[in-house]
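WARN retry 2 of 3 for item q-0093 after timeout on previous attempt; input resubmitted unchanged.
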Amino acid sequence: MTAIFTTPVDATVVAYLKTYATGATVATKVPQTVPAKFVHVVGAGGAGRRATVLDDRTIAVECWANTYADAASLMSSMDGHMHNARHVAGSNIRNVESFGAPVELPIPDSPKFRLTATYQVTVRAA
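OK item q-0093 returned
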């Protein structure tokens, strides 16, 4: 029997959100100089492998911007696209459930504004 490997869930979410994050950088690592609009996708554990081809993970999506209004607008967009992901052909995302609603999470000693939301994401192996 051939082993089946799932794609890292955070990488799958980054690839999906990049399609919709117009004018924003989307990544799993925070750059030294954070862009004016930035989406940070962080793996936060989760149940793991549920079946041969399904992986359940907890993912945090953080939206950073120079103003609260821009951060909130970016989060609203990313949240909507996260909840629509299972309906998008080719995304490999099979289900998304809110684990924590969007909330402001200030960054100490930073002029940036950050909102974060947490999701339970199910991804199918490609």
